[in-house]
Write a structure and sequence with these properties.
- This protein has 62 residues and is mostly helical.
- The protein has one domain.
- It is 90% helix and 0% strand.
- The protein contains three helices and no strands.
- Helix 1 runs antiparallel to helix 2 and helix 2 runs antiparallel to helix 3.
- The longest helix is centred in the middle third of the chain and has 21 residues.
- The radius of gyration is 11 Å and the shape is elongated.
- The model has no long low-confidence stretch (mean pLDDT 86).
Length: 62
């Protein structure tokens, strides 16, 4: 799920398609749910970093 979110984020950065941005956030939401169940704090940190990066890219694209 995280890899797919990263792929969508890269495609959003390349093409500027906001659908890819939304898809990345949806994949991150799914990954967060699974990580909470597993209690993996390292992956939780990684997801926050990816989501933060998406927010920064979104502001640049506007």
């Amino acid at each position: 799920m995280i890899n797919l979110a990263i792929a969508y984020a890269r495609r959003f950065r390349r093409d500027g398609n906001r659908t890819d941005l939304m898809a990345a956030h949806i994949e991150l939401d799914s990954a967060e749910q699974e990580i909470r169940k597993a209690g993996d704090s390292a992956l939780s940190t990684q997801i926050r970093a990816i989501r933060s990066s998406l927010g920064a890219r979104d502001k640049v694209m506007n």
